[in-house]
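Dig into these lines:

——
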Amino acid sequence: MSKNNYLFTSESVSEGHPDKVCDRISDAVVDTFLAADPEARVACETLTTTNRIVLAGEVRGPTSLVNADGTVNKARIEEAARDCVKDIGYEQDGFHWKHAKVEIHLHAQSVDIAQGVDAGTGVDTEEGAGDQGIMFGFACRETEVLMPAPIYFSHEILRSLADARHSGADIGLGPDSKSQVTLQYENGKPVRATSVVVSTQHNDGLTGDDVSTIVMPHIKHVLPEGWMPSEDEIFINPTGNFVIGGPDGDCGLTGRKIIVDTYGGAAPHGGGAFSGKDPTKVDRSAAYISRYLAKNVVAAEIADKCTIQLAYAIGVSRPLSVYVDTHGTSDVDEDKLSKVLQGLVDLSPKGIRTHLGLNRPIYARTAAYGHFGRTPDGDGGFSWEKTDIADAIKREF
């Protein structure tokens, strides 16, 4: 039997967290290539530490970015990396957008990988998946955006702090921060927060009380009325001073915050990271379409909760399995629901990209505050958050 009364916790990290700086840079490289060629291939990993940025990986793209000998246009890539760090707000002695050393070790994509993925050259005559793997999507009724409440509120607290910092309203804060929200569930529904943790980088000279005074209004603004925990369960910079932060305080790597990127641990995760990968990689595109399908199922009001798993093999265009679980919140036949979803959306790698319009430079914006639960943008960003097939699903049942 499932538990109905429990505590559940999720965390988030800000755009200035060392790992998120790396995600942002890797996704900016993806955007740079897709802006020049919608069919470009990118697998970019980034490492950051004290005044150093290192990029490595495989690419395939236009001659403006990839030279005939397989090397890349390093000046364009370096510019994109520095712009990310500048926009995040790092101008510190230990990590500065202008002064950090940038090393670029990107090279041409393996022909062995390319032949298995490109249309007409792999196992299938159609374009195959870029790798094997399993991907999950999830949606539930806990919030208006159909996301689990703990991760949603964790993101929103940090986003509120970041907006204030970028606007100049809270000039004492730095880019690096983390949050953690624990919610009380009764009868399977969240009813209040039992604890909140926020650790944020700040200017030298600010006291703990100063930081609390800055942060507390953001917590109160984000949590619903009546949800605030007691004062002794709100922990703001519990370790004390947090002046040295970001990559100067801790090494960062692309793809280390996959639970922050998705559902905060409230749903399964296939294990693949998103950032730095072009949309032919099913780690990214299939996770997006899984969320899209699950969200539309819940938006169709035929289930209160939905998990979807897709599985792929490298070079094979069709998914090996399409699993649907409504967690006992629906009376519909889940096998029929799986077939209905496959009839509405082509789940081949190319079909996913076409349906969601993924071959666009829309990825740098996904690198912080979650890939899901966001508002679709007019230029195609966060297209997987649309609920445009909900009516079609509802009609089938």
Summary: The chain has a mean pLDDT of 94. The radius of gyration is 22 Å.
